[in-house]
Amino acid sequence: MGARPLKERVILSDACVAEGAAWLCQTVPPFARAMAGMPPLPLRLKPDGFAPLLSAIVSQQVSVASANAIWARLTDAGMTDPTAVCRASESDLRGLGLSRQKARYARALAAADIDYAALRERPAADVIRELTAVAGIGTWTAEIYTMFALGRADVFAPGDLALQEAARLIFDLPGRPGEKDFRAMSEAWSPWRSVAARILWAYYKQHKQREGIR
Predict the structure, then answer these.
(1) DSSP readout, 141-152?
(2) Cα dihedral sign for 12, 33, 204, 175?
(3) Farthest-apart Cα atoms in the chain, separation
(4) Average pLDDT estimate for 126-150
(5) pLDDT tens digits, residue range 108-135?
(6) Per-residue DSSP letters for 160-201?
(7) Statement: the pTM of the whole predicted model exceeds 0.70
(8) What is the distance between the alpha carbons of residues 15 and 134, in angstroms, rounded to a whole number?
(9) Distance CA 205, CA 199 (A)
């Protein structure tokens, strides 16, 4: 028996993002006000597989410049492939700039033997559950991967501080919503929660730029 076809909506193009944004603006008036005068939302899709998740681990709790430098060293050493990482020792990985903890996380991800192609056909909740079972992959990382590497239209990342701050501003909340409350709040934006996240990130970026001008 063949695999069941994926029933979840997948974002494939700018037109998909525009469709979601139009629905959100019609359904949730604060989003329409936030989008006024804003340029088209970015597609933000990226490749899936081992390398993007390893890159996410590398980027944890370091500056963008440091993450880029470490990633360049890993790439030059051929350490963006799970087989190569499995064969490397912790010492090898640390020599390329990873901390002891991140070297262990990298090896754990490589050893997990995830079938990345199969994830494309699995429900988002299953994807997030499988990824977060790997040491070093938290819920936020798994949600971002599912959103942008797999293009799922109805995934949200309520633990993201920028999303929380943008929601505070757009919905005139007394403070940033907590992760649990924010997840519940986002259910009203289904089936386009990933596009709602794009609106919130874009608004947050625009707001910060305005603060910079002041």
Answers:
(1) HHHHHHHHTS-B
(2) negative
(3) 62
(4) 96
(5) 999 999 999 999 999 999 999 999 999 9
(6) -HHHHHHHHHHTT-SSPPPHHHHHHHHGGGTT-HHHHHHHHH
(7) yes
(8) 34
(9) 10
Q: What is the pLDDT of residue 3?
A: 46
CB atoms within 10 A of CB 80: 18
The answer to whether residues 39 and 77 belong to one domain is no
Q: What is the radius of gyration, based on Cα positions, of the chain? A: 19
Rounded Cα–Cα distance for residues 103 and 96 (Å): 10
The answer to whether residues 160 and 119 belong to one domain is no
In this structure, the answer to whether residues 129 and 198 fall within a common structural domain is no
For 43, the token pair is 């597609």
Distance CA 173, CA 185 (A): 12
d(Cα 142, Cα 50) in Å, to the nearest integer? Answer: 12
| Domain that residue 176 falls in | 14-45+154-213
CA distances from 93 to 2, 42, 58, 90 (A): 40, 34, 11, 5
Residue pair 106/86 in contact (Cβ under 8 Å)? The answer is no
